[in-house]
Amino acid sequence: MAALDSVEFGEVELEEAVARAVSRTRSPLHAGAAAWVQHACLSYLKASAELERELKGIELRPERSPRVVQGTSPVEHRILTTWGRWYVSADGTVREFRRVRISRHSEAEAPSTLAAAFVVAAGRRAAGKVYRDLPIELFPEDSPAERIRVVEVLLGSDASPGVLIDAPPDEIERAYRERARPVAIDLVAGGSQLPGRDCGECKLRPGCGGLPRAPGLLGVSGRGTHPRTWSVTTGRLYELCPAQAHFQDLRLLGRRDGDNPAIRRGVAVHEWLRVAHGRPSAKACSLDDLPDPDSGDIGLADDLMTVAEYRSVRPFLLGHLQVCPLDDPALVTGVRPEPMMAVRDPDADVVVVAEPDLIRRVDGQVVYREQKTASRPLEVSGAEALRRFPQLALAVCLVAAGVFESTTVAEDTTIGGLVELEVMTPVSAAVLTFDASDPEVLATAREIVAGYAREWHRDTEFRATPGDWCAVCPAARWCPDKASTGGRTLVVDGMVIDVETGEVLEVRGTPSNRAAALAAEVSEPDAGHDDAFSY
Q1: Got the DSSP string for 499-510?
Q2: What are the chain's domains?
Q3: Burial of 32 per CB tally in 10 Å (0-12, 13-18, 19+)
Q4: Taking Cα atoms as reference points, which of 380, 366, 290, 371 lies closest to residue 332?
Q5: Average pLDDT, the chain
Q6: CA 236 to centroid of chain Cα atoms
Protein backbone atom coordinates (compact mmCIF):
# COMPACT_ATOMS: atom_id res chain seq x y z
CA MET A 1 0.00 0.00 0.00
CA ALA A 2 2.85 2.40 0.77
CA ALA A 3 4.26 1.95 -2.74
CA LEU A 4 0.87 2.56 -4.38
CA ASP A 5 0.38 5.65 -2.21
CA SER A 6 3.66 7.04 -3.56
CA VAL A 7 2.53 6.37 -7.13
CA GLU A 8 -1.02 7.73 -6.80
CA PHE A 9 -0.44 10.68 -4.46
CA GLY A 10 3.25 11.50 -4.95
CA GLU A 11 3.51 10.79 -8.68
CA VAL A 12 6.59 8.68 -8.01
CA GLU A 13 7.68 6.13 -10.60
CA LEU A 14 6.72 2.59 -9.62
CA GLU A 15 10.23 1.18 -9.38
CA GLU A 16 11.34 3.98 -7.07
CA ALA A 17 8.12 3.73 -5.02
CA VAL A 18 8.66 0.00 -4.45
CA ALA A 19 12.30 0.53 -3.52
CA ARG A 20 11.31 3.14 -0.94
CA ALA A 21 8.59 0.96 0.57
CA VAL A 22 10.82 -2.10 0.78
CA SER A 23 13.67 -0.13 2.38
CA ARG A 24 11.40 1.13 5.17
CA THR A 25 10.26 -2.24 6.52
CA ARG A 26 11.12 -3.06 10.13
CA SER A 27 13.28 -6.01 9.11
CA PRO A 28 14.87 -6.84 5.73
CA LEU A 29 12.46 -8.43 3.24
CA HIS A 30 13.20 -11.76 1.62
CA ALA A 31 14.32 -11.11 -1.96
CA GLY A 32 11.35 -13.10 -3.26
CA ALA A 33 8.90 -11.11 -1.12
CA ALA A 34 10.38 -7.87 -2.45
CA ALA A 35 9.91 -9.17 -5.99
CA TRP A 36 6.30 -9.99 -5.12
CA VAL A 37 5.71 -6.37 -4.03
CA GLN A 38 6.85 -5.17 -7.46
CA HIS A 39 4.70 -7.78 -9.21
CA ALA A 40 1.65 -6.96 -7.07
CA CYS A 41 1.91 -3.22 -7.74
CA LEU A 42 2.21 -3.82 -11.48
CA SER A 43 -0.85 -6.07 -11.37
CA TYR A 44 -2.80 -3.43 -9.45
CA LEU A 45 -1.93 -0.59 -11.81
CA LYS A 46 -2.82 -2.75 -14.81
CA ALA A 47 -6.21 -3.47 -13.22
CA SER A 48 -6.70 0.24 -12.50
CA ALA A 49 -6.23 1.06 -16.17
CA GLU A 50 -8.76 -1.61 -17.10
CA LEU A 51 -11.30 -0.22 -14.61
CA GLU A 52 -10.77 3.29 -15.97
CA ARG A 53 -11.60 2.09 -19.48
CA GLU A 54 -14.69 0.30 -18.21
CA LEU A 55 -16.10 3.44 -16.53
CA LYS A 56 -16.15 5.22 -19.90
CA GLY A 57 -15.48 8.84 -19.11
CA ILE A 58 -16.02 8.83 -15.34
CA GLU A 59 -12.70 9.82 -13.82
CA LEU A 60 -12.04 8.55 -10.32
CA ARG A 61 -9.43 10.10 -8.08
CA PRO A 62 -7.81 8.29 -5.14
CA GLU A 63 -8.74 9.20 -1.56
CA ARG A 64 -6.16 9.03 1.23
CA SER A 65 -8.62 8.57 4.06
CA PRO A 66 -10.63 5.39 4.61
CA ARG A 67 -14.30 5.63 5.42
CA VAL A 68 -15.80 4.49 8.70
CA VAL A 69 -19.21 4.02 10.25
CA GLN A 70 -19.21 4.53 14.01
CA GLY A 71 -21.78 4.69 16.75
CA THR A 72 -21.82 5.16 20.51
CA SER A 73 -24.07 3.68 23.18
CA PRO A 74 -23.93 4.16 26.98
CA VAL A 75 -21.70 1.08 27.26
CA GLU A 76 -19.54 0.92 24.13
CA HIS A 77 -18.28 2.55 20.95
CA ARG A 78 -18.43 0.53 17.75
CA ILE A 79 -16.56 1.17 14.50
CA LEU A 80 -17.02 -0.51 11.13
CA THR A 81 -14.45 -0.01 8.39
CA THR A 82 -12.72 -1.98 5.66
CA TRP A 83 -9.16 -2.17 4.35
CA GLY A 84 -8.29 -1.40 0.77
CA ARG A 85 -8.06 1.54 -1.60
CA TRP A 86 -10.65 4.29 -1.99
CA TYR A 87 -11.73 6.34 -5.00
CA VAL A 88 -14.34 8.98 -5.76
CA SER A 89 -15.49 10.92 -8.83
CA ALA A 90 -14.88 14.66 -9.08
CA ASP A 91 -18.52 15.46 -8.26
CA GLY A 92 -18.67 12.89 -5.45
CA THR A 93 -21.57 10.94 -6.95
CA VAL A 94 -19.54 7.77 -7.64
CA ARG A 95 -17.60 6.07 -4.88
CA GLU A 96 -15.46 3.01 -5.47
CA PHE A 97 -13.73 0.75 -2.98
CA ARG A 98 -11.09 -1.66 -4.24
CA ARG A 99 -9.98 -4.54 -2.11
CA VAL A 100 -7.13 -6.78 -3.09
CA ARG A 101 -6.83 -10.54 -3.11
CA ILE A 102 -4.20 -12.95 -4.39
CA SER A 103 -5.90 -15.25 -6.87
CA ARG A 104 -9.66 -15.74 -6.47
CA HIS A 105 -12.60 -13.38 -6.25
CA SER A 106 -15.02 -13.30 -3.33
CA GLU A 107 -18.75 -13.80 -3.63
CA ALA A 108 -20.82 -10.70 -4.29
CA GLU A 109 -23.41 -11.82 -1.71
CA ALA A 110 -20.86 -12.62 1.00
CA PRO A 111 -21.52 -10.72 4.26
CA SER A 112 -18.01 -9.23 4.11
CA THR A 113 -18.71 -7.82 0.64
CA LEU A 114 -22.04 -6.33 1.73
CA ALA A 115 -20.41 -4.83 4.83
CA ALA A 116 -17.67 -3.22 2.72
CA ALA A 117 -20.28 -1.74 0.39
CA PHE A 118 -22.20 -0.39 3.38
CA VAL A 119 -19.08 1.40 4.68
CA VAL A 120 -18.56 2.97 1.24
CA ALA A 121 -22.20 4.08 1.07
CA ALA A 122 -22.83 5.23 4.65
CA GLY A 123 -19.34 5.93 5.96
CA ARG A 124 -17.55 9.24 6.31
CA ARG A 125 -13.88 9.88 5.66
CA ALA A 126 -11.65 9.52 8.72
CA ALA A 127 -9.59 12.54 9.75
CA GLY A 128 -8.05 10.72 12.71
CA LYS A 129 -6.22 7.38 13.05
CA VAL A 130 -8.67 4.59 12.31
CA TYR A 131 -6.94 1.92 14.40
CA ARG A 132 -5.84 4.18 17.27
CA ASP A 133 -8.37 6.94 17.99
CA LEU A 134 -11.64 6.40 19.81
CA PRO A 135 -13.90 7.95 18.69
CA ILE A 136 -12.43 8.73 15.28
CA GLU A 137 -12.52 12.34 14.12
CA LEU A 138 -14.32 12.57 10.77
CA PHE A 139 -14.19 15.03 7.91
CA PRO A 140 -17.40 16.98 7.18
CA GLU A 141 -19.77 15.09 4.89
CA ASP A 142 -19.17 15.73 1.23
CA SER A 143 -21.49 15.31 -1.75
CA PRO A 144 -24.01 12.48 -1.39
CA ALA A 145 -23.16 9.43 -3.46
CA GLU A 146 -25.51 8.04 -6.10
CA ARG A 147 -23.50 5.02 -7.18
CA ILE A 148 -21.45 2.65 -5.02
CA ARG A 149 -18.95 0.18 -6.42
CA VAL A 150 -16.99 -2.58 -4.70
CA VAL A 151 -14.24 -4.01 -6.89
CA GLU A 152 -11.71 -6.76 -6.29
CA VAL A 153 -8.24 -6.75 -7.83
CA LEU A 154 -6.27 -9.99 -8.02
CA LEU A 155 -2.56 -9.46 -7.45
CA GLY A 156 -1.42 -12.97 -8.29
CA SER A 157 -3.47 -13.69 -11.38
CA ASP A 158 -4.02 -12.39 -14.89
CA ALA A 159 -7.78 -12.34 -14.31
CA SER A 160 -9.62 -9.07 -14.83
CA PRO A 161 -10.75 -7.08 -11.78
CA GLY A 162 -14.14 -8.22 -10.55
CA VAL A 163 -16.96 -5.73 -10.00
CA LEU A 164 -18.82 -7.32 -7.09
CA ILE A 165 -21.29 -4.52 -6.41
CA ASP A 166 -22.43 -1.55 -8.50
CA ALA A 167 -25.65 -0.18 -6.99
CA PRO A 168 -27.32 2.87 -5.42
CA PRO A 169 -26.75 3.52 -1.68
CA ASP A 170 -30.31 2.72 -0.53
CA GLU A 171 -30.16 -0.73 -2.13
CA ILE A 172 -26.82 -1.42 -0.47
CA GLU A 173 -27.96 -0.28 2.97
CA ARG A 174 -31.02 -2.53 2.74
CA ALA A 175 -28.92 -5.55 1.77
CA TYR A 176 -26.49 -4.87 4.60
CA ARG A 177 -29.18 -4.65 7.26
CA GLU A 178 -30.93 -7.79 6.05
CA ARG A 179 -27.98 -10.08 5.36
CA ALA A 180 -24.73 -8.72 6.80
CA ARG A 181 -25.62 -6.84 10.00
CA PRO A 182 -26.77 -10.02 11.82
CA VAL A 183 -23.38 -11.60 11.04
CA ALA A 184 -21.55 -8.51 12.31
CA ILE A 185 -23.55 -8.57 15.56
CA ASP A 186 -22.68 -12.23 16.11
CA LEU A 187 -18.99 -11.50 15.50
CA VAL A 188 -18.95 -8.68 18.04
CA ALA A 189 -20.79 -10.82 20.58
CA GLY A 190 -18.21 -13.58 20.18
CA GLY A 191 -18.70 -17.24 20.99
CA SER A 192 -16.88 -20.39 21.94
CA GLN A 193 -13.19 -20.89 21.26
CA LEU A 194 -12.53 -22.60 17.94
CA PRO A 195 -8.84 -23.36 17.29
CA GLY A 196 -7.64 -22.91 13.71
CA ARG A 197 -4.98 -21.38 11.49
CA ASP A 198 -5.25 -17.94 13.10
CA CYS A 199 -4.11 -19.32 16.48
CA GLY A 200 -0.49 -18.94 15.40
CA GLU A 201 -0.84 -15.13 15.35
CA CYS A 202 -3.07 -14.80 18.42
CA LYS A 203 -1.48 -13.12 21.46
CA LEU A 204 -3.64 -15.23 23.79
CA ARG A 205 -2.10 -18.41 22.38
CA PRO A 206 0.24 -19.34 25.30
CA GLY A 207 -2.54 -19.46 27.88
CA CYS A 208 -5.60 -20.27 25.75
CA GLY A 209 -7.69 -23.06 27.24
CA GLY A 210 -9.29 -23.80 23.88
CA LEU A 211 -6.01 -24.62 22.10
CA PRO A 212 -4.89 -28.20 22.82
CA ARG A 213 -1.28 -28.70 23.90
CA ALA A 214 1.01 -31.50 22.75
CA PRO A 215 4.54 -30.99 24.11
CA GLY A 216 7.16 -32.45 21.79
CA LEU A 217 4.70 -33.07 18.96
CA LEU A 218 7.14 -31.94 16.26
CA GLY A 219 10.14 -33.63 17.84
CA VAL A 220 12.39 -30.58 17.46
CA SER A 221 14.69 -29.08 20.06
CA GLY A 222 14.43 -25.50 21.24
CA ARG A 223 11.73 -22.88 20.70
CA GLY A 224 13.07 -21.36 17.51
CA THR A 225 13.41 -17.64 16.84
CA HIS A 226 9.72 -16.71 17.07
CA PRO A 227 6.25 -18.30 17.28
CA ARG A 228 5.40 -20.11 14.06
CA THR A 229 2.62 -22.11 12.44
CA TRP A 230 3.35 -25.45 10.76
CA SER A 231 1.34 -27.94 8.74
CA VAL A 232 2.25 -30.90 6.56
CA THR A 233 1.88 -28.54 3.59
CA THR A 234 4.52 -26.28 5.16
CA GLY A 235 6.84 -29.23 5.62
CA ARG A 236 6.37 -30.49 2.08
CA LEU A 237 6.92 -27.07 0.52
CA TYR A 238 10.07 -26.64 2.57
CA GLU A 239 11.38 -29.95 1.19
CA LEU A 240 10.90 -28.58 -2.33
CA CYS A 241 12.07 -25.03 -1.70
CA PRO A 242 12.45 -23.18 1.62
CA ALA A 243 11.57 -19.92 -0.13
CA GLN A 244 8.25 -21.35 -1.29
CA ALA A 245 7.43 -22.41 2.27
CA HIS A 246 8.22 -18.85 3.40
CA PHE A 247 5.94 -17.39 0.72
CA GLN A 248 3.18 -19.72 1.87
CA ASP A 249 3.69 -18.56 5.46
CA LEU A 250 3.28 -14.98 4.19
CA ARG A 251 0.15 -16.17 2.31
CA LEU A 252 1.42 -14.89 -1.01
CA LEU A 253 0.90 -18.07 -3.03
CA GLY A 254 -2.87 -17.96 -3.39
CA ARG A 255 -4.40 -20.71 -5.52
CA ARG A 256 -3.18 -22.20 -8.78
CA ASP A 257 -4.71 -20.86 -11.97
CA GLY A 258 -4.69 -24.19 -13.85
CA ASP A 259 -5.83 -27.04 -11.62
CA ASN A 260 -5.26 -30.38 -13.34
CA PRO A 261 -7.71 -33.30 -13.61
CA ALA A 262 -6.38 -35.01 -10.48
CA ILE A 263 -6.95 -31.88 -8.38
CA ARG A 264 -10.42 -31.21 -9.82
CA ARG A 265 -11.39 -34.83 -9.23
CA GLY A 266 -10.10 -34.74 -5.67
CA VAL A 267 -11.96 -31.53 -4.87
CA ALA A 268 -15.25 -32.87 -6.25
CA VAL A 269 -14.96 -36.18 -4.38
CA HIS A 270 -14.03 -34.49 -1.11
CA GLU A 271 -16.92 -32.04 -1.38
CA TRP A 272 -19.40 -34.88 -1.97
CA LEU A 273 -18.03 -36.88 0.96
CA ARG A 274 -18.09 -33.82 3.23
CA VAL A 275 -21.78 -33.30 2.56
CA ALA A 276 -22.67 -37.00 2.72
CA HIS A 277 -20.85 -37.60 6.00
CA GLY A 278 -22.15 -34.35 7.49
CA ARG A 279 -25.82 -35.31 7.34
CA PRO A 280 -27.53 -35.00 10.75
CA SER A 281 -28.50 -38.68 10.65
CA ALA A 282 -24.84 -39.72 10.18
CA LYS A 283 -26.13 -42.39 7.83
CA ALA A 284 -23.76 -44.47 5.77
CA CYS A 285 -23.38 -43.69 2.08
CA SER A 286 -25.48 -45.92 -0.14
CA LEU A 287 -26.25 -46.53 -3.79
CA ASP A 288 -29.38 -44.39 -3.38
CA ASP A 289 -27.06 -41.39 -2.85
CA LEU A 290 -25.43 -41.94 -6.26
CA PRO A 291 -28.16 -41.95 -8.93
CA ASP A 292 -27.33 -42.51 -12.59
CA PRO A 293 -26.01 -39.23 -14.06
CA ASP A 294 -28.45 -39.55 -16.98
CA SER A 295 -31.49 -39.88 -14.70
CA GLY A 296 -32.01 -36.12 -14.41
CA ASP A 297 -31.35 -36.22 -10.66
CA ILE A 298 -27.78 -36.36 -9.36
CA GLY A 299 -28.73 -36.31 -5.68
CA LEU A 300 -26.29 -34.78 -3.21
CA ALA A 301 -24.06 -33.66 -6.07
CA ASP A 302 -26.69 -31.29 -7.46
CA ASP A 303 -25.45 -28.28 -5.44
CA LEU A 304 -21.79 -29.25 -5.63
CA MET A 305 -20.85 -29.90 -9.25
CA THR A 306 -22.03 -30.13 -12.83
CA VAL A 307 -23.51 -33.29 -14.32
CA ALA A 308 -20.30 -33.81 -16.31
CA GLU A 309 -18.18 -33.54 -13.16
CA TYR A 310 -20.51 -35.92 -11.34
CA ARG A 311 -20.26 -38.45 -14.17
CA SER A 312 -16.45 -38.39 -13.94
CA VAL A 313 -16.24 -38.86 -10.16
CA ARG A 314 -19.20 -41.23 -9.62
CA PRO A 315 -17.04 -44.36 -10.21
CA PHE A 316 -14.74 -43.27 -7.37
CA LEU A 317 -17.71 -42.67 -5.09
CA LEU A 318 -19.22 -46.04 -5.96
CA GLY A 319 -15.96 -47.57 -4.76
CA HIS A 320 -16.27 -45.60 -1.53
CA LEU A 321 -19.54 -47.39 -0.72
CA GLN A 322 -17.51 -50.53 -0.01
CA VAL A 323 -15.50 -48.81 2.73
CA CYS A 324 -17.72 -45.97 3.98
CA PRO A 325 -16.56 -45.19 7.53
CA LEU A 326 -20.14 -44.81 8.73
CA ASP A 327 -21.10 -48.31 7.57
CA ASP A 328 -19.84 -50.10 10.66
CA PRO A 329 -21.55 -52.69 12.88
CA ALA A 330 -19.89 -51.06 15.89
CA LEU A 331 -21.21 -47.89 17.52
CA VAL A 332 -20.11 -44.86 15.46
CA THR A 333 -20.34 -41.48 17.22
CA GLY A 334 -18.77 -38.04 17.09
CA VAL A 335 -18.69 -37.86 13.28
CA ARG A 336 -16.91 -34.67 12.11
CA PRO A 337 -16.19 -34.19 8.40
CA GLU A 338 -13.16 -32.03 7.63
CA PRO A 339 -12.68 -30.38 11.03
CA MET A 340 -9.94 -27.78 11.34
CA MET A 341 -7.44 -28.86 13.99
CA ALA A 342 -4.89 -26.61 15.71
CA VAL A 343 -2.54 -27.87 18.43
CA ARG A 344 0.27 -26.05 20.22
CA ASP A 345 3.64 -27.68 20.75
CA PRO A 346 4.95 -25.49 23.62
CA ASP A 347 8.40 -27.06 23.45
CA ALA A 348 8.86 -25.72 19.91
CA ASP A 349 6.54 -22.68 20.30
CA VAL A 350 4.72 -23.78 17.16
CA VAL A 351 1.01 -24.11 16.39
CA VAL A 352 0.50 -27.24 14.31
CA VAL A 353 -2.48 -27.25 11.95
CA ALA A 354 -4.17 -30.27 10.39
CA GLU A 355 -7.36 -30.85 8.39
CA PRO A 356 -8.52 -34.48 8.69
CA ASP A 357 -10.99 -35.63 6.08
CA LEU A 358 -13.07 -37.31 8.79
CA ILE A 359 -12.90 -37.83 12.54
CA ARG A 360 -15.20 -40.34 14.23
CA ARG A 361 -15.32 -42.60 17.25
CA VAL A 362 -15.90 -46.32 16.89
CA ASP A 363 -16.94 -47.91 20.19
CA GLY A 364 -15.44 -44.85 21.88
CA GLN A 365 -12.05 -45.02 20.16
CA VAL A 366 -10.98 -42.11 17.94
CA VAL A 367 -10.45 -42.94 14.25
CA TYR A 368 -8.80 -40.38 11.97
CA ARG A 369 -9.34 -40.92 8.24
CA GLU A 370 -7.62 -39.42 5.20
CA GLN A 371 -9.19 -39.98 1.77
CA LYS A 372 -7.42 -39.95 -1.60
CA THR A 373 -8.37 -40.61 -5.21
CA ALA A 374 -6.04 -42.26 -7.72
CA SER A 375 -6.30 -43.54 -11.26
CA ARG A 376 -5.07 -46.94 -10.07
CA PRO A 377 -4.50 -48.67 -6.70
CA LEU A 378 -1.54 -47.42 -4.70
CA GLU A 379 0.93 -50.19 -4.05
CA VAL A 380 2.14 -48.89 -0.69
CA SER A 381 1.76 -50.07 2.87
CA GLY A 382 3.23 -49.68 6.32
CA ALA A 383 6.11 -47.26 6.77
CA GLU A 384 6.24 -46.51 3.03
CA ALA A 385 2.67 -45.19 3.15
CA LEU A 386 3.53 -42.99 6.16
CA ARG A 387 6.47 -41.55 4.23
CA ARG A 388 4.53 -41.07 1.01
CA PHE A 389 1.70 -39.34 2.86
CA PRO A 390 3.21 -37.51 5.85
CA GLN A 391 -0.21 -36.27 6.93
CA LEU A 392 -0.77 -39.85 8.09
CA ALA A 393 2.37 -39.66 10.22
CA LEU A 394 1.18 -36.39 11.77
CA ALA A 395 -2.24 -37.97 12.37
CA VAL A 396 -0.63 -40.87 14.27
CA CYS A 397 1.26 -38.37 16.45
CA LEU A 398 -1.89 -36.32 17.10
CA VAL A 399 -3.94 -39.35 18.09
CA ALA A 400 -1.17 -40.73 20.30
CA ALA A 401 -0.80 -37.34 22.03
CA GLY A 402 -4.47 -37.42 23.01
CA VAL A 403 -5.45 -34.13 21.35
CA PHE A 404 -8.88 -35.57 20.47
CA GLU A 405 -9.67 -36.50 24.07
CA SER A 406 -12.05 -34.39 26.16
CA THR A 407 -9.75 -34.44 29.20
CA THR A 408 -6.11 -33.43 29.56
CA VAL A 409 -3.70 -36.28 28.90
CA ALA A 410 -0.53 -36.55 30.99
CA GLU A 411 2.73 -35.99 29.16
CA ASP A 412 4.54 -39.13 27.94
CA THR A 413 1.21 -40.97 27.83
CA THR A 414 0.29 -42.70 24.57
CA ILE A 415 -3.40 -42.81 23.70
CA GLY A 416 -4.89 -45.58 21.58
CA GLY A 417 -6.63 -44.82 18.32
CA LEU A 418 -6.54 -45.58 14.62
CA VAL A 419 -5.44 -43.67 11.54
CA GLU A 420 -6.87 -44.72 8.17
CA LEU A 421 -5.99 -44.00 4.55
CA GLU A 422 -8.84 -44.61 2.11
CA VAL A 423 -7.80 -44.77 -1.54
CA MET A 424 -10.55 -44.64 -4.15
CA THR A 425 -10.00 -45.65 -7.78
CA PRO A 426 -12.52 -45.91 -10.64
CA VAL A 427 -12.99 -49.63 -9.93
CA SER A 428 -12.45 -50.16 -6.20
CA ALA A 429 -11.49 -48.70 -2.85
CA ALA A 430 -9.22 -49.89 -0.07
CA VAL A 431 -8.33 -48.75 3.44
CA LEU A 432 -4.93 -48.91 5.13
CA THR A 433 -5.05 -48.78 8.94
CA PHE A 434 -2.38 -47.70 11.42
CA ASP A 435 -2.60 -48.26 15.19
CA ALA A 436 -1.34 -45.12 16.94
CA SER A 437 -0.53 -47.14 20.08
CA ASP A 438 1.80 -49.51 18.21
CA PRO A 439 5.34 -48.52 19.33
CA GLU A 440 6.87 -49.21 15.92
CA VAL A 441 4.21 -47.25 14.03
CA LEU A 442 4.47 -44.33 16.47
CA ALA A 443 8.27 -44.25 16.32
CA THR A 444 8.20 -44.17 12.51
CA ALA A 445 5.56 -41.44 12.51
CA ARG A 446 7.54 -39.29 14.94
CA GLU A 447 10.68 -39.70 12.88
CA ILE A 448 8.85 -38.59 9.71
CA VAL A 449 7.24 -35.54 11.32
CA ALA A 450 10.53 -34.41 12.90
CA GLY A 451 12.26 -34.90 9.56
CA TYR A 452 9.88 -32.48 7.89
CA ALA A 453 9.97 -29.90 10.72
CA ARG A 454 13.55 -29.86 12.01
CA GLU A 455 15.35 -27.72 9.44
CA TRP A 456 12.34 -25.47 8.87
CA HIS A 457 12.07 -24.73 12.58
CA ARG A 458 15.51 -23.14 12.81
CA ASP A 459 15.67 -21.51 9.37
CA THR A 460 15.62 -17.73 9.21
CA GLU A 461 16.81 -17.18 5.62
CA PHE A 462 14.58 -19.52 3.55
CA ARG A 463 16.84 -19.59 0.52
CA ALA A 464 15.36 -20.66 -2.81
CA THR A 465 16.39 -24.04 -4.20
CA PRO A 466 15.34 -23.86 -7.88
CA GLY A 467 14.71 -27.04 -9.82
CA ASP A 468 12.23 -28.83 -12.06
CA TRP A 469 9.57 -28.27 -9.40
CA CYS A 470 9.52 -24.57 -10.34
CA ALA A 471 7.21 -25.71 -13.16
CA VAL A 472 4.36 -26.21 -10.66
CA CYS A 473 5.22 -23.49 -8.14
CA PRO A 474 2.63 -20.69 -7.79
CA ALA A 475 5.47 -18.25 -7.07
CA ALA A 476 7.16 -18.86 -10.42
CA ARG A 477 5.35 -15.83 -11.89
CA TRP A 478 7.49 -13.47 -9.83
CA CYS A 479 10.22 -15.42 -7.99
CA PRO A 480 13.65 -14.00 -8.95
CA ASP A 481 15.32 -17.40 -8.52
CA LYS A 482 12.99 -19.57 -10.59
CA ALA A 483 14.50 -22.18 -12.88
CA SER A 484 13.62 -22.60 -16.54
CA THR A 485 11.50 -25.72 -16.92
CA GLY A 486 9.62 -27.55 -19.63
CA GLY A 487 8.07 -30.86 -20.55
CA ARG A 488 5.02 -32.75 -19.46
CA THR A 489 6.70 -35.10 -16.98
CA LEU A 490 8.90 -34.45 -13.97
CA VAL A 491 11.36 -37.01 -12.65
CA VAL A 492 12.47 -36.33 -9.09
CA ASP A 493 14.41 -38.82 -6.99
CA GLY A 494 12.97 -41.80 -8.84
CA MET A 495 9.36 -40.61 -8.99
CA VAL A 496 7.84 -39.85 -12.42
CA ILE A 497 4.95 -37.36 -12.36
CA ASP A 498 2.66 -36.20 -15.16
CA VAL A 499 2.33 -32.45 -14.62
CA GLU A 500 -0.76 -32.07 -16.82
CA THR A 501 -2.85 -34.80 -15.17
CA GLY A 502 -1.33 -34.75 -11.70
CA GLU A 503 -0.84 -38.54 -11.74
CA VAL A 504 2.21 -40.35 -10.40
CA LEU A 505 3.27 -42.53 -13.33
CA GLU A 506 6.09 -44.49 -11.72
CA VAL A 507 7.88 -44.87 -8.39
CA ARG A 508 11.40 -46.29 -8.46
CA GLY A 509 12.35 -47.46 -5.00
CA THR A 510 11.33 -45.65 -1.82
CA PRO A 511 10.38 -42.05 -2.67
CA SER A 512 12.28 -39.26 -0.94
CA ASN A 513 10.52 -36.59 1.07
CA ARG A 514 11.10 -34.20 -1.81
CA ALA A 515 9.55 -36.55 -4.36
CA ALA A 516 6.54 -37.15 -2.11
CA ALA A 517 6.20 -33.39 -1.59
CA LEU A 518 6.21 -32.72 -5.33
CA ALA A 519 3.63 -35.46 -5.97
CA ALA A 520 1.34 -33.86 -3.39
CA GLU A 521 1.87 -30.36 -4.78
CA VAL A 522 0.89 -31.52 -8.26
CA SER A 523 -2.02 -33.81 -7.39
CA GLU A 524 -3.68 -32.45 -4.25
CA PRO A 525 -5.85 -29.36 -3.70
CA ASP A 526 -4.10 -26.25 -2.37
CA ALA A 527 -4.47 -27.05 1.31
CA GLY A 528 -2.83 -24.26 3.27
CA HIS A 529 -2.41 -21.84 0.35
CA ASP A 530 -4.42 -19.15 2.07
CA ASP A 531 -4.96 -15.67 0.66
CA ALA A 532 -3.02 -12.90 2.39
CA PHE A 533 -6.08 -10.67 2.01
CA SER A 534 -8.90 -13.06 2.98
CA TYR A 535 -12.08 -11.43 4.20
Answers
A1: TTT--EEEE-SS
A2: 2-189 (no CATH), 228-458 (3.90.320.10), 468-523 (no CATH)
A3: buried
A4: 366
A5: 90
A6: 15
Cβ contact 242:499 at 8 Å: no
Report CA torsion sign: 255, 257, 262, 266. Answer: positive
Q: Which letter, b or e, does each residue of 373-400 get, where b requires 16 or more Cβ atoms within 10 Å of its Cβ?
A: bbbeebebeebebbbbbbbbbbbbbbbb
The 10 Å Cβ neighbour count of residue 333 is: 11
CB 88 within 8 A of CB 148: no
SS3 143: coil
Give dist(CA 162, CA 262) in Å, integer. 28
How confident is the model over 186-204, as a mean pLDDT?
Answer: 86
Residue 254's φ and ψ, nearest 5 degrees, are 60, -150
**pLDDT above 60 for 63:** yes
Q: For residue range 374-409, what is the model confidence (pLDDT) as tens digits?
A: 888 888 888 999 998 999 999 999 999 999 886 566
Q: 100: burial class by Cβ within 10 Å (0-12, 13-18, 19+)?
A: buried
Q: What is the DSSP string of 181-226?
A: HHHHHHHHH--S----GGGGG-TTGGG-TTS-B-TTTT---S--SS
Q: How many CB atoms lie within 10 A of CB 437?
A: 15
CB 67 within 8 A of CB 120: yes
Q: 393, 390, 392, 376: which is closest to 430 by C-alpha?
A: 376
**What letter would DSSP give residue 284?**
P
Omega prior to 135 cis, within 30 of 0: yes
Distance CA 445, CA 392 (A): 8
| Residue 8 DSSP label | H
Angle in degrees, CA 110, 114, 116, rounded to 5: 115
Provide mean pLDDT across the span 194-223.
Answer: 89
Euclidean distance between CA atoms 82 and 99, whole angstroms = 9
What order of strands is seen across the sheet that includes strand 504-507? 489-492, 495-498, 504-507
| pTM across the whole model | 0.89
- Mean pLDDT within 432-447: 97
